[in-house]
Amino acid sequence: MPFIGTFVPPGDKSISHRLILMSLLAQGQILIKGLSNCQDVQSSLDIYRTLGGVTELEADGLRLRGLGGQWPPGQDLMLQCGNSGTTIRLLMGILAGRPGSYVLDGDEQLRRRPMERVADPLRRMGAEVKTVNGKPPVTIKGGELKSIDYTCVAASAQLKSAVLLATLSAKGPSAVTEPCLTRDHTERLINFWGGSISHSGLKISLSPGILKMTNTFECPGDPSSAAFFLSAAAFNEGSSVTAENILMSQLRTGFLRVLDRMGAKVSLSLSSDTPEPAGGVKIEYDGPLMATEITSEETPSLIDEIPILALAATQAVGRTIFRQVDELRIKETDRLASISSQLTAMGAKIVVEGDDLIVDGPTVLKAPNQLDSSGDHRLAMTLAIALKTAKAETKILGDKSIPISYPEFNSHLAQLWRD
Ligand code: S3P
User: What's the domain range around 364?
Assistant: First the structure.
């Protein structure tokens, strides 16, 4: 049974977080069109308001006023980051160089995620940062920050962004070197708002300064949300799905390149290039998919799409290998364990060997009595697509987590799935 039709996914979550959180450091005001309405972004918005940010809902978007780094310093002020890793890690970078003391906490899943990787460079710059066994709650006391020439311990855009955002409030320039390229929305927005990022290979350099917001920003749709239905079209016979106005950054659309080389028919139409590349993507079923190998260099460009790509791999002919995907162990859940256990329960041949995820296909999926997403939004959506592919209905435990990134998922599923 096919997936057919056109849909517009919510605004990009990564860009939405940055627009809101970086408004804390920037001057001016901005009308944001297409901001994501997901729960994670709501966590960033709540914190922006707690620190004194003012928002106005207008006919075509949300207006935010920049605080220019000036808000009354908190005294152990509690900031709730909910489920959002991007909120807590970027905020650590923002608060590191501002006066006041803050406690950054989150829900049960966030409390299991590592924060030392961010705390370490911020401490070296001069902030006082405490974690509880490396995890939230994070206590942070901002201070005068010095320069750092930092090499990231992981390919993580959140880590890179935290150091860059701290640099904006520091006493001198800093440099951050990545092991491989990761999403560059922070760098693009810094440049767009008047800062000057420079690149030399994998090294990014930045001088401190106050950013000045542009009058408007049109946030393109989230490719990580669009990925569920676009991928579904690649492995469900007779499908043709178009996502309109999505972010087309090369650093986010690795899943499209992978689906293309697995044999799906992928058509792109770029409609704008600034402030971020955006356009439409159509995927049509074009016969059975073929297995592929996903290298560790490719992983950051598809890190959040591995659950749905793993499902695609169960329908592909041959062995698909995701190389060195250990970062998945520290996402909302241990995604290596949760994807493999739940797809195995559906009859897939999927195993973790060392840090590789290996899928042998094609397999006919079936539905067990129940599935468990462990409250992981991306796993819940993957399982919902898997059940449609299996033409089966089963309760997915923890699917209330879906609005964390994609509140319209169930209505888009009903719209695009043809019985
Ligand atoms: C994000 C970066 C990625 C990604 C997350 C959003 C961002 O995490 O998985 O969903 O907005 O910077 P890491 O930077 O930890 O890889």
Answer: 220-416
